[in-house]
Amino acid sequence: VTSVNRDDQPDGGAHIFARTIEEIRRRVPGCRVEVLIPDFRGDWDALDVVLAVRPDILNHNTETVPRLYRQVRKGVVYERSLELLRRSKEAHPEIPTKTGLMLGLGEEKEEVLATMQDLAAQGTNILTLGQYLQPTRDHLPIVRYVHPHEFAEYQMLGEALGFKHVEAGPLVRSSYHAFDQAESAK
């Protein structure tokens, strides 16, 4: 379950996420639900609303390395994303947490590794790494295409850092092999 940012809602859409999860479970008993949420602009009460309905996986995409945050994620703060993942894990250690990075925006390998270390330190269970693809000419350009062997290296490094599941490859997106990710995070 995902949505565009709901800054028009006082709680960033937290109650909509929660009601949607509850309704899916009511209509399809046994259905597992992964929720991809915004940072709620640091409104931790809103995060608690989502956590209270216990999604099967709580996903919040970090998207990029700290140096590129202002360009890539206007209005979003890297440390707030880390705090969201940490708070989620502290409040409900039984709920797997997940995040993803887009590569090819100009980040350096050392920056990716440092970001992966930050994410692992928050107790994040699942990490996805994929190639950034420019959706339109109005979006940021691709700085470089990351070679598949680099993705394979990041996958091995992520596993060594303790992530329960790492998906890394040019076409990987947040939902790529989601069932397998959920199984490995148990």
Provide a count of the helices: 7
- CATH architecture identity of the domain at 61-185: 2-Layer Sandwich
CATH fold node name of the domain at 61-185:
Transcription Regulator spoIIAA
Would you report the number of β strands? Answer: 5
The low-confidence parts are none
Round the mean pLDDT to the nearest integer and report it: 94
What is the succession of H and E elements?
A: HEHEHHEHEHEH
Cα Rg: 16 Å
Structural class: alpha/beta
Instruction: Give the fraction of residues assigned to helices.
Output: 40-55%
The N- and C-terminal alpha carbons lie at a distance of 19 Å
Shape by Cα distribution? globular
CATH level 1 class label of the domain at 61-185: Alpha Beta
Task: Characterize the biggest β-sheet.
Answer: 5 strands, parallel
What is the spatial order of strands in the main beta sheet? 1-2-3-4-5
Describe this structure in words.
- By secondary structure, this protein is an alpha/beta fold.
- The protein has a domain at 61-185: Transcription Regulator spoIIAA (2-Layer Sandwich), CATH 3.30.750.
- 41% of the residues lie in helices and 13% in strands.
- The chain contains seven helices and five strands, in the order αβαβααβαβαβα.
- It has helices at residues 14-27, 44-52, 69-72, 78-91, 109-121, 148-161, 178-185; strands at residues 34-36, 57-59, 97-103, 126-131, 165-169.
- It has a five-stranded parallel beta sheet, sandwiched between helices.
- Helix 2 (44-52) crosses helix 4 (78-91) and helix 5 runs parallel beside helix 6 (148-161).
- It is globular, with a radius of gyration of 16 Å.
- The protein starts with 13 loop residues before the first helix and ends with a helix.
- The mean pLDDT is 94.
